[in-house]
Design brief:
This protein has strands at 2-7, 10-13, 18-26, 33-39, 46-51, 58-60, 68-73, 78-83, 92-99, 109-110, 114-119. 0% of the residues lie in helices and 52% in strands. A hairpin with a 6-residue loop joins strand 5 and strand 6 (58-60). Strands 2, 4, 5, 6, 9, 10 and 11 form a 7-stranded mixed beta sheet that branches. By secondary structure, the chain is mainly β. It is globular, with a radius of gyration of 13 Å. It has no helices and 11 strands.
Length: 120
């Protein structure tokens, strides 16, 4: 059982930065990759970034490579998504997720989402 709570969304101008955080609580044993998906209005949920249970491996969607960085703080039981050089197309609700590697939109545990709006 995994519980996830996101925070850090908001309104930012084009070219700006935001940092999303996701605190997690895991009951029982198990290794979980963790990461972020996003969903814009009228669109399907899409992969953004993921990090392995150890934190040693990360992958990113091509659309965010070089702009977003995912990280994991084991002590604080938190993952973060640093988003730089934000574009209007980054506007979406961002969901934190945990599950088997690689993460998929149709499985795993999910947070409630946090909204990001990038305005020009």
């Amino acid at each position: 059982q995994v519980q996830l709570v996101e925070s850090g969304g908001g309104l930012v101008q084009t070219g700006g930065s935001l940092r999303l955080s996701c605190t997690y609580s895991i009951v029982g044993s198990g290794l979980y990759a963790m990461g972020w998906f996003r969903q814009a209005p009228g669109k399907e949920r899409e992969f953004v970034a993921q990090i392995s249970d150890s934190g040693d491996y990360t992958t990113y969607a091509d659309s965010v490579k070089g702009r977003f960085t995912i990280s994991k703080d084991h002590a604080r039981k938190m993952i973060s998504l640093q988003m730089n050089s934000l574009k209007s197309e980054d506007t979406a609700t961002y969901f934190c997720t945990a599950g088997p590697w690689p993460l998929r939109s149709n499985r795993g545990y999910w947070g409630q989402g946090t909204h990001v709006t990038v305005s020009s």
